[in-house]
Amino acid sequence: MSEKDNRRLLLEKAMKERDYKESALLEILHRAQEIYGYLDKDLLIDISASLNLPPSHIYGVVTFYSFFKLRKSGEHVVTACLGTACYVKGVERIMEAIEQEFKLKRGGSTADGKLSLLVTRCIGACAMAPNIVVDDEVIGKATTEEAIEKIRNALGGVKSET
Amino acid sequence: MHLEELNLKLDDLQKIVEQEVDFERAYKYRINVCCSSGCVPFGAFKVLKAFEDAVKEFGVDNECKVARTGCVGTCAVAPVVLIEPGDYLYQSVKPERVREIVRDHVVSGLPVKDMLYKNQAYFQKQHRLVLRNAGKIDPSRIQDYISASGYSALAKCLATMTPQGVIYEIRTSGLRGRGGAGYPTGQKWALVSRSHNTPKYIVANLDEGDPGVFANRTLAEADPHAFIEGMLIAAYAIGAEKGYIYIRSEYPLAIQTLQKAIAQAKAMSFVGDNILELGTFKFDLELRFGAGAFVAGEETAILSSVEGRRAMPRPRPPYPANSGLWQKPTLIQNVETLANIPLIVQNGGLWFSKIGTPKCTGTKCFSLTGKTNNPGLIEVPMGITLREVVFDIGGGVPDGKKFKAVLVGGPSGGCLPETLLESPIDYDSLTKVGAIMGSGGIVVIDEESCMVDTARFFTEFCVDESCGKCTPCRAGLAREKEVFDKITHGQGEMGDITTLEKSSIYIRDASLCGLGQTAPNPVITTLRYFKDEYIQHIVEKKCEAGKCFKNRDEEE
User: What class does CATH assign to B363-446?
Assistant: First the structure.
């Protein structure tokens, strides 16, 4: 079976488990993003047909919540925490350095699609501010040098030990 | 006997406690390794593994239990390890030095002094009720919670108290909602319980959207059963049979811990069709995930989100107590509020009412962050002054820098200057000086930060997070942000101050929900207490902290 069909089956299972109920829309979207990585237009239309909801309703929900992504993100994702504590501790400077070093803008990806830089409003690790997340690894008390080195390692395929 | 498979009756609770006591008695020491979100990035799992290896290597694994626990609160010195008995707290533990701790402390009985946490002042002024078990129990073992007298309050309610009796105790306690608004909890319960419309629902709010706040996350990672039990007691009191815990999707470890805790509570029939096999009470519990919307923490918005829609607030009345989830009576309570409930039921409302101040009883968890020497999670009695928190517990500002302001209450809180540090922390006093209790964020700001830029930062946050329903909030905040951009780029005029003052009042007075009503707080308070900085920016085009004006050339 192709990977595409397999993913669709997983999504169908998730919807069925929740009885195709409207109230489970957020859970279903979460699961869909987990399976596909992002939510494109065809996928949203597919979900709207399964749940018997207008596509506009689904689109409205998806665009309301910042967690849902409509576009594919880079192979590696750097997330800068822009919560209050990280802001006070100067995360802005680190972000600027990353933007310059890897030639991308926050919210976007590099031209080759290898790296995306996202911004989040607080990951709740405020005591260790500033925080930068490289793929799934949180770097607390981050410095510019450390953040850039970790990103280089991730891009170069070096697995971190933590 | 497999405890997980055991269906419990009331007496069985006692048996578990006894078993656990026997089980623990076999151990001379208990090594609690904090593995919460604060310590994990600093190598907590490696430390845990090193302890497990070391106790085997020294042959003390029979007398020494190594447990994976939640947060102690001293996040500044992560990773931390707490060794009982004696509550020896080790700081900044490196895996390389774990052998030394086991050899000296466990084998020879001599704590390794140079690694012990010495800042006793951090704990002295705290009063830990909600965080009673945090860092001391393994959140993935329900037995740990039970042996710390967990679920005995639920048993007490079901066996000896009427729902009205429970509500009476909560009313007596004077407990107020910890989500920020401070509505009396007992009164809320009474309202929902009086409604004849069924079914009734409970929503536990764990959508900790305030940047800079992590108290609820810590609680979920350290002691999830505390608020699950609180929720069950509330359900019994108001007659609800279904509950939802609404949690942020940004908290993966908390979600994992909570999922496990709910599964265990179901397996042991604390949650389910026949709770404690008494045949009198049933309650089903589900998790719901947020998706990154600050406004979803607002009590009517959270309902829309649980129903699977955009988290848009709606006008009240009707209040959720009468018409909430699917137009049914719904009790919405923050998890910190719920974690207080088992203690109140155990010790009585009167006991609780003596903690804190007469009008504002109990304790409050605060996330202490920013330019402070001791960032972390603290729990203090209501009525403590801001100075005690910032200087005694927080240890002041690092690197010899000068204190400038403290932001209390998250992005829609108030920035208070040094002269207001004597203000006591309680709902009413904070509101009086222009701040809010909010969800309990205290961010210390030093001379390196510019207050105009800080106000701009929070306004930008609220622009992003406004749901767009009310014009004053949607358009007013965007307009304020434009004015801030003007001022911080050197094009400010004196009239801008009046514009900000006026629009802040409009936004506050004409918005529907708490987000819009409190969003201008940082602007109002910085204008009230730090107006000279605004004037300096406008007249002298000067920013003493060096935050503003710097990108001017690039952008032009």
Answer: alpha beta
